[in-house]
Amino acid sequence: MKEVYDSFSVAEMPEAITVLLVDDQPMVAEAIRRMLEDEPMITFHYCSDSKKAIDMAVEVSPTTILQDLVMPDIDGMTLLRFYRNHPQIKDTPVIVLSSKEEPKDKSEAFSNGASDYLVKLPDQIELIARIQAHSRSYVAQRQRDHAFRELHQLQKELEESNIELERLSSIDGLTGIPNRRSFDEYLAKEWGRSVREENSLSLLLIDIDFFKKYNDGYGHQGGDDCLRKVATELANTMRRSSDMVARYGGEEFAVVLPNTDIDGAVVIAEELRSAVEMLALEHEFSDVAEFVTISLGAAGIPPQSGEDSASLISLADEALYEAKAEGRNRCCRAKQDVAD
After folding, report:
1. Is 30 within 8 Å of 78 (Cβ atoms)?
2. Which residue ranges form the domains of the chain, and what is each CATH number?
């Protein structure tokens, strides 16, 4: 009816309305069908058997159910409760059609989940208006729920993407171990922790011996493969989750050893040197061995408040320089165990 459509804009109307009538009287069904037949937006379905009402509602996905109260086998009140307990149709609006107009019956219907109550046979204009109003509200709610679920999913995907980006930004793309940025952040964090807890903090700086010659002799692909294997071996040799192996730059690696003094750092350094040597990666261009080897500088100090980790890095770097000067494939400890 034109009067009904003029009561709200087309933009507010659901694109399609599906009505399911559940009533055991064919004459009532025919009357309702005729009331709705000139409404192009409304699709009408009819179920005369109350035992099939739930299955049919699930099948046709109505935007509004018209439910008779007095029916054989399963009465309308029971069906209302069934509707509200079914996950697929629990939110579907249900307009009760009843020959009774007693307040008690209306109250019972609403307490069992009815959305509206009409005495049959209702006025055509009123019936269509209420079907449209309930369907519009139901469709809008479903659209909001769908949008909310999509938004929640997008937020979840964004969070996962951010976590992955953060992970990737902290990992060296070639070797798969933490990069220089991660090293700097972790060393600063552990420096602060050591100051608070008054623990020693140690650092190893590692250099692959004669790596430039290796790269020149075996090519950049061979050099990359060597870096990956050495990095993996260094990481696998560490026993504590708190110890970080990172790529420091080029062919250099660094190991942060929280709560470890210089003596402990030297022990770990020797384990790392031996592990890389045991890989037996051929290096025919090395001046120190026939296999790939590493040189290490170890430093360990009790960090002091007001200082930063630069002093520890400087000590480890001096020790590494000494290891290379003494012939490589060895570890040298810093001569100064306590910062100035």
Report:
1. no
2. 2-146 (3.40.50.2300), 180-333 (3.30.70.270)
